[in-house]
UniProtKB/TrEMBL annotation:
InterPro entries: Beta-lactam-related, Beta-lactam/transpept-like, Diverse_Enzym_Activities. Keywords: Hydrolase. Signal peptide: none annotated. One of its GO terms (molecular function) is hydrolase activity. Residues 20-387 form the Beta-lactamase-related domain. The lineage of its organism: Bacteria, Pseudomonadati, Pseudomonadota, Gammaproteobacteria, Pseudomonadales. The keyword Chloroplast does not apply. Its EC number is 3.1.1.103. This is Serine hydrolase domain-containing protein. It comes from Halopseudomonas formosensis.
């Protein structure tokens, strides 16, 4: 039994390394794979494989810096809920209470930008709508509707020159995809949450994160801009090409993440390491605290982990968009996380109440409170839907529980 730690069989966990090498790395499907499995408050298995920078032949390391993209969202959601705990707002507050220009938001009916035909919203958008992606906002990269085409035309997906203020200002003039609370759609809503954090705290988002989340948790390798002295550890990012190949999409030497760029994206702007992000997930797994630093109250986190979709349904019943960082079936959505509500329906091994999220370059994490289990995976291949590696990893990890 010496090969079992915290109820996990190490020989079975070692299958992960072989699987990643044989199926994804040796075949040129993924540049790298960095994996961490933790249980009962400690790291049981972790490994860095492949190349963090294929062009320069640099091997991935456990301290490699990754673009975590939408894994920024849970951090932003915690930040906003910290302010909720201080009585700064209520979840059913209309967003226009804090962003007056949003008082008269309308819903798309027909037409193309700038000649939209719209109808009034059935009710005002609330802060909870933002946290749960039930706001009616969208993403330009969705490429599904005339509204997201307007987002692309106005460059609202984090292009150079965009600021949070500019984003919020432009969104005031665009229609929503649907009336708030009537459907679910992945969107820039979490960037708006980041704007509200700035507004309510009086601090820029990067400074707020540092002071109230990253600093207290000792996350010294998580930031919006990679410092010069850490550039050597910054991975290249790749883009999927047909035929199971990839091409360089963002060179670490010239990346906009290496210089101040003005857009502090609470929806997708952070760089981190697997070890740093583990400090965040371990704080959540502990009920909001790590090494004496509490970032969120236990009951607040319990509330965030509930399924907040109408009637306790799952995403396929209410989704208005085709994209998500989690399989739809059997998943609900809380305040900043996907939440497993029907395990059999999800067709992946899990426990009720498991929560987590991923990023567009293939990074992901989940926390299983029933098994006291955490898994974090880092790579840099966009889009995240290129391969089913997340589901395969899940099967191998749960298969190692004894």
């Amino acid at each position: 039994m010496s090969d079992v730690i915290a109820g996990l069989d190490l020989n079975r966990l070692n299958r992960i390394a072989g699987h990643m090498e044989d199926k994804y790395l040796a075949t040129g499907k993924l540049p790298c794979a960095v994996t961490l499995v933790a249980r009962e408050g400690r790291i049981v298995w972790q490994q860095a494989q492949g190349l963090m920078d294929v062009e320069r032949g640099k091997p991935a390391q456990l301290d490699t810096l990754f673009r975590i993209y939408s894994m920024t969202k849970p951090i932003t959601s915690i930040a906003l809920m910290q302010l909720y705990e201080q009585g700064r707002f209520l979840l059913d507050d209309p967003v226009h209470k804090y962003i007056p220009a949003w008082r008269d938001l309308r819903v798309y009916k027909s037409g193309v930008y700038p000649n939209f035909v719209t109808t009034p919203v059935q009710r005002p958008m609330t802060i909870r709508d933002l946290l749960t992606h039930q706001s009616g906002l969208t993403y330009g990269f969705s490429c599904q509707t005339n509204v997201d085409a307007a987002y692309r035309q106005l460059k609202l997906d984090g292009h150079m020159g965009l600021t949070l203020e500019k984003l919020v200002e432009e969104l005031a003039h665009l229609p929503l995809e649907f009336s708030p609370g009537t459907a679910w759609k992945y969107s820039v809503a979490t960037d708006v949450c980041g704007y509200l954090v700035q507004l309510l705290s009086g601090l820029p988002l990067d400074e707020y994160f540092s002071r109230y989340i990253l600093g207290p948790l000792g996350m010294q390798d998580t930031f919006f801009t990679v410092p010069q002295d850490k550039l050597e550890r910054f991975a290249a990012c790749y883009e999927y090409q047909s035929g199971d190949r990839f091409r360089l999409q963002d060179d670490p030497q010239t990346s906009h993440f290496t210089r101040e760029h003005g857009f502090l994206s609470g929806g997708g702007g952070l760089i981190s390491t697997i070890g740093d992000y583990y400090r965040f997930t371990q704080a959540l797994a502990n009920g909001g605290e790590l090494d004496g630093a509490r970032i969120i109250g236990r009951k607040t986190l319990e509330f965030m982990r509930l399924n907040h979709l109408p009637g306790g349904t799952d995403l396929p019943r209410v989704s208005a968009g085709g994209f998500s960082e989690t399989p739809y079936e059997g998943s609900g959505f809380g305040l900043g996380f996907a939440v497993k509500v029907d395990i059999a329906k999800s067709q992946t091994i899990s426990s009720p109440g498991e929560y987590g999220w991923g990023g567009k370059a293939g990074t992901t994490f989940f926390i299983d409170p029933v098994e006291d289990l955490q898994v974090i995976f880092m790579t840099q291949l966009s889009p995240s839907s290129s391969y089913m590696v997340r589901q395969e990893l899940r099967a191998m990890v749960y298969g190692a529980l004894v």
